[in-house]
Design brief:
The protein is mainly beta. The protein contains 2 helices and 48 strands. 2% of the residues lie in helices and 44% in strands. The strands form 10 sheets. Strands 16, 18, 19, 21, 24 and 26 form a 6-stranded antiparallel β-sheet that branches. Strands 27, 29, 30, 32, 35 and 37 form a 6-stranded antiparallel β-sheet that branches.
């Protein structure tokens, strides 16, 4: 019997755990997913010469080296590498050899392996043999005997002379080429010169159908077009195994509750999707299916686009899977680019055994888009206005001060900064969780923001959440910290995430820590454009400010506060994209320009407006998206090219989401203001939504 004891021996991790609080770490569930070496044991080979010389060969899954404690109080423990052996001389007796497997991560697994050293010949030999329940034609032999340390099994297959060795009480396994009855000879060995052996007759059998289901696929459903699988939503199939002259009989069976196709006497079989609406696979990169066959020799998959004529290579092509492996589930992935078939309209799919006949089980038949390991393009540049943003990490904005990025809180995460199309991007590898610390002494106030935003790209992520922490509060207080998840992750493309801050219980007025967390998974995740912003409503909720200037000092173009001059044309058709409507905001008439490229306002060509006594032009604007806005004044009494005819002045950097009052000195214009007939708003080639009110001149 072996006793196991799992040891976490990463000293740095223990040091970090002892010196940090729980909120510093975030979610530590990832520790449970780090794998220590498994199935640690050792094979004993005792020299049969009454010397007690024992050779010890450790083995395991996942260990790179071993510590061997001999258990005889004679030999000093040693460290050896995977595949090496060590030896020691033992007096007669029963021993416990301690073998510690050490993995790459530093985790250790300890096993106590019993060792019997006796100079007596083995006695009471008991052989237990049985067919493996899962692997076809495999026989498992277990041996017990007194005074024995190990045993050799000669499985009796012609041409195979080397035995399979194992320790007493453990199992030796062998897979036969063919089922049948074989003479199995077992030799029990100890430290004595004498051995004990016995020969038995055993019939090995062939497993004719799978006893376990096919491996569950891991491709994300968004990247899959599924023909047949319990894991995905399958497309509509109009015909299965239609009568095209084949010998094939199709039935659907269940293996541990999993639906599976069983093709009996398969020579070929067809699957028809929809002739009238063929399946578009041009966005997929591979076709996948799992097969299990007890007797198959050849297997191929044909894709058919029936919109082409016979003989056209774009119509049909077949690809083989290679040598069929019998008696176990085999996963097949064929690159669609290897097919000559035009995959933009597939209506038929055929499994074919290329002249053979076989029994074949099929599951998880689907097409998928292979996700690259890193993004080929940068994240989309953000459009939120800098005045409405508190940026953590983005080339588009000025970022806040960060005192720590990915600090050592015991995570597996490695962070590097990479450039993608010249754009700096965080790359998290092995992401379990990661911390970002702004400034404990000067917390970041996000109370004026409405949303958290970041862009992520991942080839393998399952879960991703963002935690906000206000360390001014004590543990357990909901105002201290909260995490929100992004939902089902999309793989292989940039995804923009916007989380309303009202979803968090955290007090946003003093954020000092931000954590990305994968809920115990480990993933590669690229992050860019991580910022908080104030969402801009699509329209103003309040009217523009009411002007206070005395009417005698004003010449008004448009305002409820004053009597305006006569306008002969508003937004005349001069080739612009602009649409103008008049709306009421809190009872106040306001111009709404949508898709504003430019727009004109004509006073009176026959009676131009004299602004020569005015000193300024005033405008109130509100926009959710505008980037440029200028006002042009035109005196059509002058010819083209004359500086006195027209000039434009811009309002400067535009502010989004609030009314802005603009005052432009008329002295800035070259236009002769004594006879203005046209006024134009211009967005410098952009298209924007702009509300305008209180357009007037004053002194």
């Amino acid at each position: 019997m072996k006793t196991f004891n799992y040891i976490i021996s990463v000293v740095l991790l223990l040091t970090a755990v002892s010196s940090c609080t729980e909120e510093d770490f975030g979610n530590l569930d990832f520790i449970d997913s780090i794998t220590a070496p498994e199935n640690v044991s050792a094979l004993f080979t005792v020299t049969p010469d009454n010397t007690g010389l024992v050779t010890i060969t450790p083995n395991s899954e996942g260990a790179t080296s071993y510590e061997v404690h001999y258990g005889n109080d004679i030999t000093t423990p040693v460290s050896i590498e995977q595949g090496e052996s060590t030896n020691s001389i033992y007096p007669e007796g029963n021993y416990e050899v301690k073998v510690i497997g050490v993995g790459l991560s530093g985790l250790k697994t300890e096993a106590m392996v019993p060792l019997v050293v006796s100079f007596n010949a083995p006695t009471n030999l008991v052989i237990t043999s049985m067919n493996d329940e899962v692997i076809s034609k495999q026989v498992n032999v277990t041996v017990t005997a007194e005074f024995a340390t190990s045993f050799d099994v000669y499985f009796g297959e012609t041409g195979i002379d080397e035995p399979v060795m194992a320790n007493i009480g453990e199992t030796a396994s062998y897979i036969y080429a063919e089922p049948g009855t074989y003479s199995i000879r077992v030799v029990a060995k100890g430290a004595a010169v004498e051995t004990t052996e016995e020969t038995i007759e055993f019939e090995t059998v062939e497993i004719l159908q799978p006893v376990t289901p096919a491996p569950e696929p891991t491709a994300q459903e968004a990247n899959v077009v599924s023909i047949y699988s319990d894991v995905y939503t399958n497309i509509a199939i109009s015909e299965l195994n239609p009568d095209w002259g084949q010998s094939t009989v199709l039935t659907e069976i269940q293996i541990e509750g999993n639906n599976t196709w069983f093709y009996n006497s398969l020579n070929f079989t067809g699957i028809v999707t929809d002739y009238g609406n063929p399946t578009v696979l041009s966005g997929m990169s591979h076709v996948h299916f799992d097969y299990w066959s007890p007797d198959g020799v050849k297997l191929g998959l044909k894709l058919v686009n029936t919109s082409y004529d016979d003989g056209d290579p774009l119509k049909a092509d077949l690809k083989e899977v290679g040598s069929v492996i019998q008696g176990e589930w085999v996963s097949v992935d064929i690159v669609l680019a290897d097919y000559s078939t035009d995959v933009s309209g597939i209506s038929q799919l055929l499994f074919d055994t290329l002249g053979e006949t076989a029994n074949v089980y099929i599951d998880n038949f689907y097409f998928y888009q292979d996700v690259p390991t890193s993004p080929a393009v940068a994240a989309t540049a953000p459009t939120a206005q800098a005045a409405n943003v508190v940026s953590i990490y983005s080339d588009a904005y000025t970022n806040v001060f960060l005192s720590e990025v990915n600090p050592n809180w015991g995570q597996t995460t490695a962070l590097t900064e990479v450039e993608i199309e010249g754009n700096k991007t965080w790359k998290y590898e092995g992401l379990s969780f990661t911390g970002i610390v702004t400034d404990y002494g000067n917390a970041t106030d996000l109370s004026g923001m409405t949303h958290a935003h970041f862009d992520y790209w991942s080839p393998d992520g399952v879960s991703l959440g963002l935690k906000l922490v206000n360390t001014a509060y004590g543990d357990g207080d909901p105002l201290k910290e909260d995490i929100e998840n992004v939902g089902t992750m999309t793989l292989g493309s940039w995804v923009s995430v916007d989380i309303p801050l009202v979803d968090y219980t955290t007090d946003p007025s003093g954020i000092t820590q931000l954590l990305f967390d994968t809920s115990g998974e480990s993933a590669t995740v690229f992050i860019d454009n991580f910022y908080f912003y104030k969402e801009i409503p699509p329209a103003p909720l309040v009217a523009a400010p009411i002007p206070t200037l005395d009417a005698v000092n004003v010449i008004s173009i448009y305002s409820d506060a004053y009597t305006g001059v006569a306008l002969s044309e508003v937004n005349p058709n001069w080739g612009q994209t602009t649409a103008l409507t008049e709306v009421e905001i809190e009872g106040n008439n306001t111009w709404l320009y949508e898709n504003l490229s430019f727009t004109g306002i004509v006073t009176d060509y026959g009676n131009a407006t004299d602004l020569s006594t005015m000193t300024h032009v005033h405008i109130d604007y509100w926009t959710p998206d505008g980037t440029s806005l200028g006002l042009k004044l035109v005196n059509t009494a002058y010819g083209d090219g004359d500086a006195l005819k027209e000039d434009i002045e811009n309002v400067g950097v535009m502010v989004h989401g609030s009314w802005v009052s603009i005052e432009i000195p008329l002295a800035d214009y070259t236009t002769d203001t004594s006879g203005i007939t046209q006024l134009l708003f211009d967005t410098s080639g952009e298209s924007a939504k702009v509300y305008i009110d209180n357009l007037y001149f004053h002194n």
